[in-house]
Design brief:
Blueprint: H1 2-16, H2 23-34, H3 39-44, H4 55-82, H5 107-120, E1 125-126, E2 132-134, H6 135-138, E3 158-159, E4 162-167, H7 172-180, E5 186-195, E6 207-217, H8 222-237, E7 243-250, E8 253-262, E9 279-288, H9 290-295, E10 304-311, H10 312-320, H11 333-336
Parallel strand pairs: 1-5
Antiparallel strand pairs: 2-4, 3-4, 5-6, 6-10, 7-8, 8-9, 9-10
Helix pairs in contact: 1-4, 2-4, 5-10
Length: 343
């Protein structure tokens, strides 16, 4: 018994002095002391030779020895596999980090931000609203009552849960929400994604992005609208671009017009984008219809205003001379990598 206790103390001293330089040394320690044929198993096998009246005391001694050895092994693992003692696997924090590929902004985001920046310089604030709208804000308040034939121009997607809910067809719904607040004058632009039930082609998609503008105050005229849009075109495309206005029809404006610029892709000579006319429509505009003002609780005898709306994809196609609108949503990295973080 005394000889066995002395042997355990010697083993403890040997274990305590054990040094591991790497993970292999730690594994050698485990096999030697904690393996199936290791010293701990061998010592614990001596339990059968201990007198019955000393088994409890000796059992505690053996258990302490086993825990001591296991703790030493855990310490060796910590200082080799994960610790600083393992000089072969230590990470050198002075080395340069792995380089990460740099991305760029999507062309739609670039142009949208540019449009917002131009109108903010004119004092327009940014307003946003929900993409899932109700019939009132998307159609009825905009002088498009139920069964109005002009609704066919903006066929959209409806929500089965409630037939009155739909995916907005324009960000004009945001303008209605702002007008309902009754805080005049109003000078806002409304960027956002909109939806139309259209056949996908090089010139159309079932979703796209818009920026619409609204200015309501006293004595606002069509001349104010034209000068605002002239400024926008010159800032976006340059002073050499030609501009023309054509009479048009929109239920929510009267009078209404469409604004064209000379095609930047063909230089006005004619191509498939401008339908060989040399001109490309970039936006619709007009004076806010009195019915719309009254629907939103605004006195149409005192206040007037103008509104305009443009598709961001159309502006982007002209800005970067892109001939197919579908490229914007295909996530082709070869296409997206061509754009930097500035317009």
């Amino acid at each position: 018994m005394e000889q066995l206790i002395k042997q355990i103390e010697d083993y403890k001293q040997e274990i305590n002095n054990y040094v591991a330089a790497n993970a292999d040394d730690a594994e050698t320690f485990r096999i030697k002391y904690l393996g199936t044929k290791g010293l701990v198993k061998s010592v614990m096998g001596e339990m059968k030779n201990v007198p019955a009246d000393q088994k409890k005391e000796f059992g505690q001694l053996l258990n302490d020895f086993k825990l001591f050895t296991e703790a030493k092994y855990e310490e060796l693992k910590e200082t080799t596999d994960n610790g600083k003692a393992n000089t072969e696997n230590t990470i050198d924090i002075s080395l340069p980090a792995d380089t990460l590929p740099l991305g760029s902004r999507h062309p739609i985001s670039l142009v949208r931000n540019r449009i917002v920046s131009i109108f903010q310089r004119l004092g327009f604030a940014v307003a946003e609203g929900p993409e899932i709208e109700d019939d009132w804000h998307n159609f009825t308040a905009l002088n498009l009552p139920e069964n109005h034939p002009a609704r066919d121009m903006q066929d959209t997607f409806y929500i089965n849960q409630n037939p009155d809910w739909l995916l907005r067809t324009h960000t004009s719904s945001v303008q209605v929400r702002e007008m309902e607040k009754g805080k005049l004058p109003i000078r806002i632009i409304c960027p956002g994604r909109v939806y139309r039930n259209e056949t996908i082609s090089a010139r159309a998609h079932c979703f796209f992005h818009q920026v619409e503008g609204l200015y309501i105050a006293e004595n606002v005229s069509f001349a104010d609208l034209k000068q605002t849009l002239y400024f926008f075109v010159q800032e976006m495309f340059g002073e050499s671009v030609k501009v023309r206005f054509r009479p048009s029809y929109f239920p929510f404006t009267e009078p209404s017009a469409e604004m064209d610029i000379s095609c930047l892709i063909c230089g006005g000579k004619g191509c498939n984008v401008c339908k060989h006319t040399g001109w490309v429509e970039i936006l619709g505009c007009g004076m806010v219809h009195p019915n719309l003002l009254e629907n939103c609780g605004i006195d149409s005898n005192k206040y007037t205003g103008f509104a305009f709306g443009m598709g961001v994809e159309r502006i982007t196609m002209l800005k970067y001379q892109i001939k197919d609108l579908r490229l914007f949503s295909e996530n082709d990295l070869r296409f997206l990598k061509q754009f930097t973080s500035a317009v």
